[in-house]
Amino acid sequence: MGDYLFPAEPGVRAIARELYDHTRGMPIVSPHGHVDPAMLAGDEPFPDPARLLIVPDHYVTRLLVSQGITPERLGVAPLDGGPAERDGRAIWRILAENWHLFRGTPSRLWLELTFREVFGLDDVRLGPENADAVYDAIAARLAEPEFRPRALFERFGIETLATTESPLDPLASHDRLAADGWGKRVITTFRPDDVVDMDHPRWARSVRRLGELTGEDTEDFDGYLAALRARREYFKARGATATDHGHPTARTVELDHEEAARIFKRRLHGTVVAGDAEAFRAHMLVESARMSLDDGLVMQLHPGPYRDHDAWLHAGFGVNVGGDIPTATEYTRALKPLLDRFGHEPGFRLVVFTLDESAFTRELAPLAGVYPAMYLGAPWWFLDSPEGLRRFRETVTETAGFYNTAGFADDTRAFCSIPVRHQVARRIDAAFLARLVAEDRLPLDEAAQTAADLAYRLPKHVYKL
User: pLDDT tens digits, residue range 348-390?
Assistant: First the structure.
């Protein structure tokens, strides 16, 4: 598999191999992800292979569920406290018996690369006949000190890992990491969705908790804004360089301050008016941009998912278990109010992601090619596959170039997949650049520099790391 993901034509493949050699040993910068910082703070041995590689990975479980395998059989606990499979070997056997379902998917590629690159298992083609042997080999590795979280972090070559936390999180794990000298290696990201999104079932309770944490009067809109600023500073003091906003749409609007305060007040006291939640989210994106201009935190926007589309899955097992679906998302008109105010501000950076590939060519690349403050985030979630990464470069480069993009973000909870995901992204970029070299559209030395910039220098620059 030494040349996997490189072009089939021998001459272009040789160029891709040479370009990849410039980046394969570079440190990993992971500016956006969802690894639990408690894992690194505690540095305890990982659980069994199934609970490490299957149970928490909704990329894996959702495909199995789509074939009628219930979440309980995969170790996903029901919300009602009902039984779920606890035997890791039994869960692993289900994956092995259904390995054919993953043919052609990025999940199979990531898992097979993890078997090989992380656990040293060469040429593993998982199946019922070798399920127990592979399970036992990984379990044996996990018992070794070299496979504890911090040791793997070092072996993976991770320079910076950003996690994602709510404003209500005390960040105790980050404080523990800082006390151990890891404060600049594992940093937090400010994710205010639960105190901004009025559609969240615990929004009012979370807003009041925000007031308790900060000593601000969050029954009042100005006090609420002050509390958000205070928590941003709290996060910044613990290493944060960015915020993240996961909204259903990319809509932005600057409401009259009094109107925003009225919406805030009536929803806080239980009055539900159609359109209020979307208008408030849109306004708060502009408020957040204003705060970013003041405190220097890079602003990330992740719009477009229809959360919990599978009502049965959500009711039985909660959120983040594979029931979300991408939607078509509009950006040109939606982002105009925010970009009119801040798109040319030197101190402001906005990294925009999408789940709607059609927007890359039509809207996002042209927008990033105009506004100095805006960068294109890497293909995300349903799009962070080899083909998705390839299509991204093909659709945005001619309009936005390389340097209006923000580099690769693995956006994962699956810690052991981080190095292989970055390896895949670097190989895809090397393959794309190799074609430009072969077609006499880019000199080899410039392609090599660009490959290194995309892998390492751009995310450090964009995210102020």
Answer: 999 999 999 999 999 999 999 999 999 999 999 999 999 999 9
- pTM for the model stands at 0.97
Q: Are residues 166 and 89 in the same domain?
A: no
Contacts of 293 (CB under 8 A, 6+ apart): 342, 345, 347, 348
Is 38 in the same domain as 61?
no
Question: Can you tell me the distance from the alpha carbon of 332 to that of 312, in angstroms, rounded to the nearest whole number?
Answer: 35
**Is residue 249 over pLDDT 90?**
yes
Which of 95, 122, 147 is the C-terminal boundary of a domain? 147
Summarised one tens digit per residue, pLDDT across range 134-178 is: 999 999 999 999 999 999 999 999 999 999 999 999 999 999 999
| Angle of helix 221-237 versus helix 257-268 axis, rounded to 10 | 90
pLDDT of residue 69: 98
Examine the domain organization and report whether 192 and 136 are in the same domain: no
Q: For the chain, how many structural domains are there in total?
A: 2
Judgement on whether residues 139 and 241 belong to the same structural domain of the protein: no
Cβ pair 372, 339 in contact under 8 A = no
Q: Which pair of structure tokens corresponds to residue 289?
A: 């941009």
Q: Is the domain of 127 the same as that of 264?
A: no
Q: Are residues 18 and 69 in the same domain?
A: no
Q: Which pLDDT does position 123 carry in this prediction? A: 84
